[in-house]
Design goal:
Blueprint: H1 3-21, H2 28-33, E1 43-46, H3 51-54, H4 76-89, E2 93-96, H5 104-113, E3 117-123, H6 129-142, E4 147-150, H7 162-181, E5 185-189, H8 193-196, E6 198-201, E7 210-213, H9 214-220, E8 227-232, H10 233-239, H11 244-254, E9 258-263, E10 265-266, E11 272-273, H12 282-289, E12 295-298, H13 306-318
Parallel strand pairs: 1-2, 1-12, 2-3, 3-4, 4-5, 5-8, 8-9, 9-12
Antiparallel strand pairs: 6-7, 10-11
C-alpha cells in the first residue's frame, strides 16, 4: 500500500469519527414537537373543545343559562360524566363557553363535585354597566375565578375605523376597572381578524404612524391593571400566515399583558391538530408570552375525539410520554 493511500485512509477514518461525535441539529419539525412541562395548576381546558359530546338535541331546561356548549340542553348526568372523565385525565381547571345548558347553581355543583375549578367563561362584553354588573354577579355565583371576559372585544368593535378601536378600548377600561373592583381580571380572546385588521397608528409616539394590528392599538390604549389578553396561538399564527417568527414577535410585544394562552396546535396545512403534533414551537411560544401567563388552556375547535384529544393535550403539556 502506498504512503499516500495510507494517509488518505487515516484522514477519512478520523473524519468519520469526528462527524459521528457531533450531535445532529434537530429539524424544525422536531423542535416544534419538543415540550416544556407546564405546572399542573396552570393547565386548563376550554369546554368548547368538548362540544360534540356535550351537545344534546333536547330543548334547554327552563332557567338554563345561555350558550350551553354553543346551545342545547345537555342533561346534567352527561355533564357530570364528562367532567369526571376530564378530572381522571388530570384537568383541574376549566374555561367555559357558556353554561352548558345548566342553571348556574347546578353547573357550579357539578364542577365542584368533579374538583374542576371554573377559571373563566367566554361570555358577552357590553357597554351597559347594568348588564355588566349582572355578568359579574353571575360569575361570582358560579364560583368563577380569576378571569372574566369573552371571545370578542365588545362594542363598538374593531372594524369600521380606528375611532371604533379607540372607543372599544375606552369601554374595556371602564368595564375592566369594574371587574377588578370585584376581584376579576378582564380578558379578551383573539381570532385572526383582531390581528390581521390593521390601522395607521403612531404606536411608538414618535410622530411616525405605521400599520398596527387593532389588538395592539387596544393594548396601547388600555390600562394594564384592568385589561388583559387571552391569546389563541393558533389564530395568531393564522393571522401571520403561518410565519412563526412574526407570531413570536407579536407575543413578545404583548409580554406582560397576556393572562392566558389558548394552547391550540396548527398542522402544516393551517388546520387545527393535536397539541404537540403540529408545527408550533411551544417552548418558544411560552418564552415569548412571558412569566405573567396564569393559565395555559387547551382548545381544539371541532375536536374529532374530544376525550382522546384532551388526554393527548394534557400529556403533552405535562411532558408525560
Amino acid at each position: 500500500m502506498s504512503l499516500n493511500r495510507t494517509i488518505l485512509i487515516a484522514v477519512t477514518f478520523c473524519f468519520i469519527l469526528v462527524t459521528a461525535a457531533i450531535p445532529a441539529s434537530p429539524s424544525p419539525q422536531a423542535a416544534a414537537r419538543a415540550c416544556t412541562p407546564l405546572p399542573d395548576a396552570k393547565i386548563g381546558i376550554q369546554m368548547y373543545s368538548m362540544n360534540s359530546v356535550l351537545r344534546d338535541p333536547a330543548p334547554a331546561p327552563a332557567g338554563a343559562g345561555r350558550g350551553g356548549a354553543r346551545g342545547g340542553g345537555t342533561p346534567p348526568a352527561i355533564v357530570d360524566s364528562i367532567l369526571a372523565g376530564l378530572h381522571t385525565v388530570g384537568y383541574k381547571n376549566a374555561e367555559l363557553a357558556g353554561l352548558i345548558g345548566q342553571p348556574i347553581a347546578i353547573l357550579r355543583s357539578l364542577m365542584e363535585k368533579n374538583q374542576i375549578k371554573v377559571i373563566g367563561n367566554h361570555g358577552n362584553l357590553t357597554n351597559d354597566m347594568t348588564v355588566w354588573t349582572q355578568t359579574i354577579a353571575d360569575a361570582q355565583a358560579l364560583g368563577q375565578d380569576p378571569m372574566i371576559g369573552a371571545a370578542n372585544f365588545g362594542p363598538p368593535g374593531l372594524n369600521g375605523g380606528i375611532e371604533n378601536v379607540l372607543a372599544t378600548a375606552a369601554n374595556l377600561n371602564k368595564i375592566g376597572e369594574a371587574a377588578a373592583a370585584k376581584g376579576f381580571a378582564l380578558f379578551m380572546h383573539n381570532h385572526s381578524a383582531e390581528i390581521s385588521t390593521t390601522y395607521s397608528y403612531d404606536i411608538k409616539k414618535n410622530g411616525k404612524p405605521e400599520m398596527v394590528s387593532a389588538l395592539e392599538i387596544v393594548a396601547a390604549n388600555t390600562d394594564p391593571r384592568y385589561v388583559h389578553f387571552e391569546i389563541d396561538v393558533h389564530w395568531a399564527l393564522d393571522a401571520y400566515k403561518l410565519d412563526q417568527d412574526a407570531m413570536i414577535a407579536f407575543l413578545n410585544r404583548l409580554k406582560g399583558r397576556i393572562i392566558a394562552l389558548h394552547v391550540k396546535d396548527t398542522a402544516p396545512d393551517g388546520k387545527i391538530t393535536d397539541v404537540g403534533k403540529g408545527i408550533i414551537d411551544w417552548p418558544r411560544v411560552y418564552a415569548a408570552a412571558g412569566p405573567d401567563v396564569k393559565y395555559y388552556i387547551w382548545e381544539y375547535d371541532g375536536a374529532p375525539e374530544p376525550m382522546k384529544n384532551a388526554e393527548i393535550a394534557y400529556k403533552y403539556m405535562r411532558c408525560i410520554p
